[in-house]
Design a protein that fits this description.
The complex is a heterodimer of chains A (493) and B (96).
Chain A (H helix, E strand, L loop, with lengths): L1 H5 E12 L36 E2 H13 L7 E2 L2 E4 L9 E4 L6 E8 L9 E12 L3 E4 L7 E5 L6 E7 L6 H18 L11 E13 L2 E4 L3 E6 L2 H22 L9 E6 L4 E4 L12 E2 L6 E2 L2 H10 L4 H12 L3 H9 L2 H14 L2 H18 L11 H12 L5 H14 L3 H7 L7 H13 L2 H8 L6 H11 L5 H14 L3
Parallel strand pairs in A: 13-14
Antiparallel strand pairs in A: 1-10, 1-11, 3-17, 4-5, 4-16, 6-7, 7-10, 8-9, 11-12, 11-13, 14-15
Chain B lengths: L4 H10 L6 H19 L22 E2 L9 H5 L10 E4 L5
The chains are: A alpha+beta (493), B mainly alpha (96).
The complex binds zinc ion.
The site of zinc ion has 8 residues of chain A, from loops.
């Protein structure tokens, strides 16, 4: 297709992440989500005269931790500025943000896709800065009243704004970046990244580099807002790229020909629509906030943050592969489930000494059970040692894999150990001598089958296994197949 | 004139102020005087002076992350020109 090769999509993202603090950024009102409107405000966050903001220490600590994890440079000096604009959900008439001296800049995040949907890439981080959130306006549809209702509970909640360089080249990459960023933030424990509750919000800047006979031409940059899920981001970007290409074909407009446009994603209609023209940066009349003093960060504080990072997703993925011999895809699946599930997996793998088996069981049985029950690993009724006990029984050929799945289901239902579940299902450990004796009996009763086996007709063994299973449901079919073949060949019947 | 009336008009717009022709003329002159007055500082040679971000020689003033009681909602909403039981009410916010 012409459209696929004629242009390259250039994407940069702006992500706002709500930091997981108890209180707001500059006052001690609660940040709890879902409280009745306007019950979590005070003179500071609703901008009453004479109120004085004081920086939340934990918010700065979480921001610093994130900046270090994103491999950012941390300047030794940072300050806060007022970004002035009028909007009903911004009671002070300005937002406290960071303008020319952000707390961190020039970092990066490596992204890759285990299935190869996009090439490995380092997405550069332009800056990450700490700022306060605005309130929420709700349009009142009731009785045709033309009012908006304003809830200021969210006003002053700490946000980290993370701005990337325009380094992504497809909607899939943008989604890949967001997925990796969310995973990183979750591992750091700095945010719950809940998009429904607004803890993670994404805006995208997108334009095209169109190949023309006269060289590559950049189309005007469009900012897209209102994307409420990663999937929406992916779809909005795909739509917008194609739309911009059509506009380019029709108008030939280049970057700089028109002011930067803002468009909103309409998830119902699956289209982007034009919004009001954005203020220019100078229109915000930034100036240093005289109510807040600057923050100085020492190399020791940065080093301390680095020590607190723990093992991050990228390092964990490669360690799981080398420590447990599992493939990249499996490591990716496990790590994406979060730190607790990885710890569970490692406990099972170490206890059984079989990483691949543990990994398969995690991906198939454990994760499926968690999904079916909408449960997290911390609440899972089967503990890691209990699963390890079951997998060890499989390893020792005491039960086969199919039967083990029955036992596993029973362990979940009864919240019991593997041995108790096996006992409840009437699965006793089968004695090897007894099994051999059983096989002898069956062979003696089936001389025709013995003759077939001697001639190398292995098909005959199927019926024999069936008979043996009827006599004892717990015997391992693989093991008795071997016994039948050995006995028939050795004629020790 | 240190400021043009177009500049003052733009600042007025950003401040959501509607100025009449006479007001605009007066404000352009008055704001121009203010700018002119402050501009005297340009006469100082500050090449060897390190820029300051704040008038106070303080930094790293933090408060611990501990929730304290918020305002009672009735008090918070008390001065609102228009309100209901839960929220401030403002003319419809459109197009966002
Ligand atoms: Zn407050």
């Amino acid at each position: 297709m012409m459209a696929d090769t004629a242009y390259e999509v250039i994407i940069g993202l702006e992500v706002h992440v709500q930091l997981q603090t108890q209180s707001k950024l500059f006052c001690r009102c609660s940040t709890r989500f879902g409280a009745p409107p306007n019950t979590q405000t005070c003179p500071v966050c609703i901008g009453l005269p004479g109120a004085l903001p004081v920086m939340n220490e934990e918010a700065f600590r979480l921001a610093l931790l994130t900046a270090v994890a994103l491999e950012c440079e941390i300047p030794s000096f940072t300050k806060w500025d007022r970004k002035n604009y009028y909007y009903p959900d911004l009671p002070k008439g300005y937002q406290i943000s960071q303008f020319d001296l952000p707390m961190s800049c020039h970092g990066g995040l490596e992204i890759s896709d285990a299935k190869g949907a996009f090439p490995d890439r380092r997405v550069r981080i332009l800056r990450a800065h700490l700022e306060e959130d605005a309130g929420k306006s709700m349009h009142d549809e009731v009785a045709g009243k033309a009012d908006s209702r304003i809830d200021l509970n969210r006003t002053g909640t700490p946000l980290l704004e993370i701005v990337t360089e325009p380094d992504m080249r497809s909607p899939q990459e943008a989604k890949g970046f967001l997925t990796e960023l969310k995973l990183l933030l979750t591992y750091l424990g700095v945010s719950d990244c809940n998009m429904q509750e607004g803890s993670l919000r994404v805006d995208a800047n997108v334009n095209l580099h169109v190949s023309t006979p006269g060289g590559v031409v950049a189309t005007p940059i469009v900012e897209i807002k209102n994307m409420n899920s990663f999937r929406a981001v992916e779809r909005a970007l795909a739509y917008e790229a194609e739309r911009q290409y059509q506009v380019w074909l029709e108008t030939g407009r280049k970057k700089g020909d028109v002011p930067k446009q803002t468009r909103g994603w309409d998830d119902q209609a699956q289209v982007t629509r034009g919004q009001r023209h954005k203020e220019e940066s100078s229109d915000y009349r930034y100036f240093p906030d005289p109510d807040l003093v600057p923050v100085r960060v020492t190399p020791a504080q940065i080093e301390e943050a680095r020590q607190r990072l723990g093992e991050l997703p990228a390092a964990l993925r490669s360690r799981l592969q080398s420590d447990y011999g599992i493939d990249a895809y499996s490591a990716d699946v496990l790590v994406n489930q979060g730190r607790l599930l990885v710890q569970y997996f490692e406990a099972v793998a170490q206890s059984t000494g079989d990483g691949k088996r543990a990994s398969n069981w995690m991906q198939q049985d454990v994760m499926r059970s968690l999904n079916e029950r909408s449960m997290v690993i911390g609440d899972f009724p089967v503990s890691a040692p209990a699963l390890a006990e079951l997998l060890s029984a499989v390893q020792r050929d005491e039960i086969d894999n199919t039967r083990a799945k029955d036992v596993f289901a029973r362990m979940i239902d009864d919240r019991c150990s593997a041995s108790d579940a096996m006992a409840a299902l009437g699965i006793a450990k089968v004695d090897e001598a007894q099994t051999v004796e059983l096989c002898r009996e069956i062979l003696r009763a089936n001389p025709k089958a013995v003759a077939d086996l001697k001639e190398g007709k292995q098909k005959a063994v199927g019926a024999l296994i069936g008979q043996a299973k009827q006599r004892n449901a717990n015997i391992n079919p693989g093991r008795i197949k071997e016994i039948f073949l050995d006995l028939a060949r050795s004629e020790q019947i | 004139m240190p400021l043009s009336s177009a500049e003052v008009e733009k600042v007025a717009l950003l401040s959501r102020l509607l100025l009449g022709e006479e007001e605009l003329r007066r404000m352009t002159a008055q704001l121009g005087d203010v700018v002119e007055y402050v501009r005297q500082l340009d006469e100082l040679d500050t090449t060897a002076v390190e820029p300051m971000a704040h008038a106070a020689e303080l930094s790293n003033v933090f408060a611990p992350d501990e929730v304290q009681p918020s305002l009672d909602r009735e008090l918070a909403l008390a001065n609102a020109p228009k309100r209901d039981d839960e929220c401030y009410r403002v003319p419809a916010v459109l197009g966002d």
